[in-house]
Every structure is written in structure tokens, then in C-alpha cells.
Amino acid sequence: MSAVPTLGVVALDCPDPVALAEFYRSVLDWEAPEVAEDGHWVTLANPAGGAGIAFQRVPDHRPPAWPSAENPQQLHLDLNVTDLEAAHERVLGLGAKLLDDKPETFRVYADPAGHPFCLCAC
User: Fold this and answer.
1) CA triplet 45, 10, 55: central angle to 5 degrees?
2) Fold of the 63-122 domain
3) What's the CA gap between 122 and 115, in Å, rounded?
């Protein structure tokens, strides 16, 4: 046993955990999520064995404002892609909203619950 923790999941608050998990499952092409019996917690396991993503129901969820000094994003996901243009079209088709396309090497989007995430060319 070790006292050093490992990262299990990144948890995102949202109004509908099942719907948001399905969005990220589609974006990442991962397996179906594991849904808690009450539907308030949904987990996407990383098929590569790394940290997964979890989604927690928060009825009065307020999405982060991007960019805003008054209500900062606090956390975002960086998703690496080899074809930025194709990935851009794909996430828009899945329900993402483009927030910033000025950088040449990455683009900023909001997921359907308003969390920012980036597609990063690698």
C-alpha cells in the first residue's frame, strides 16, 4: 500500500449526468458509462487505464462563464487531436459550442452543460 494517491476521475457538476456522460463518451469514443442506481453519479472509465471522467447531478448547476474574471472557468479539459479541423466538426455535431477559435494550435468549446474544454492539435 502507498500513501501517494493516484487520480481516479475528474468530476464535473451538471444538471443531467447521463446526457453529459453520453456527450463525452461520443467525443472520446469510450465505452458506455456506468450509471449509479439513482442516476445522480455517472462514470466514464478511461479504456487506456488512466483517469476517467465522472458526472454529478447538481439541480441548480450554473455553468462557468468563459472568459470572465468575476466567474472564472476554474477547470477545463484539454483533449488532444491529430486533425483539429475534423475534430472541430465532430464536436460541433455532437452539441459543443465554439467559444474561441483564434489560437492556431487549439480551440475552446463549451460542452452541452457549459463546461469549457479545448481541442489541442498534437
Assistant:
1) 75
2) 2,3-Dihydroxybiphenyl 1,2-Dioxygenase; domain 1 (3.10.180)
3) 22
Q: Is the pLDDT of residue 4 over 80?
A: no
**CATH topology assigned to domain 6-61:** 3.30.720
> Is residue 11 within 8 Å of residue 51, measured between CB atoms?
no
State percent of the chain over pLDDT 70.
98
Rounded to 5 degrees, φ, ψ at 89 are -60, -40
Q: Model-level pTM?
A: 0.90
Distance (Å, whole) CA 66 – CA 79 = 18
69: cell is 474574471
Q: Where are the domains of the chain?
A: 6-61, 63-122
33-67 confidence digits (pLDDT tens): 999 999 999 999 999 999 999 999 999 998 887 77
- CA 73 to chain centroid, in Å, comes to 13
Between helices 17-28 and 84-94, what is the axis angle to 10°?
160
